[in-house]
Amino acid sequence: MIEHLSYSSISMYMDCPESWRRKYLAKEPTRTTSALAFGSAFHGTVERIVALGDTQYDPLPVWSEEFNKQFTDSVSLDPDETREQHFNEGVRILSHEAVRNLILSIKPGRDAAGNALIEQRVELQVPGGPVPVIGYIDVILDDNTPADFKTSARSWTDAQAGNALQTLFYL
């Protein structure tokens, strides 16, 4: 029995109900792609840097830790890609001055104890729905705006970002 829904499970159902059934009902093991592992490593790196709020912070040691945490033997690589290629791509991105400045410009809100408001749990009980929808906001900015970190092969348009189901759920 399903205990809750999430943005990713709803999105998967909307894209392919059979894939959703296999993952969430039949509990078939799913393959971790290199893109998913890369995104998770990059996401973890950005979260840790933002939480620190240190503008002099070097992101590369964090990237190395997060990359090694995500790129385990269970990650499926295509024949034309290597683990090193993905690691070096992260180094290239994080070493770019504009990317570094953008990450360091993210100012998270803080709770009473001074902890950054990162990975904040959100729960929505849909009236008449059997289970809640649960999600985690990547960061709540210092102006109380929810923000989400994404990696993608292509840049999102403003319309894509503004109309994303996940963003609408958080708002």
What does the secondary structure layout of this molecule look like, with pairings?
Layout: H1 7-15, H2 17-25, E1 32-33, H3 34-52, H4 59-70, E2 75-76, H5 83-95, H6 97-105, E3 118-124, E4 133-140, E5 146-147, H7 158-162, H8 165-170
Parallel strand pairs: 1-2
Antiparallel strand pairs: 3-4, 4-5
Helix pairs in contact: 1-2, 3-4, 4-5
Order of helices and strands: HHEHHEHHEEEHH
Main beta-sheet strand count, sense and barrel state? 3 strands, antiparallel
Radius of gyration: 18 Å
Q: How helical, in percent, are the residues?
A: 40-55%
DSSP, total strands:
5
Strand content: 5-15%
Give the oligomeric state. Answer: single chain
Report, as a whole number of angstroms, the end-to-end distance.
Answer: 28 Å
Basic shape: globular
* Class computed from helices, strands and strand pairing: alpha+beta
Output mean pLDDT: 89
> Number of DSSP helices?
8
Low-confidence stretches: none
Q: Strand order, biggest sheet? A: 3-4-5
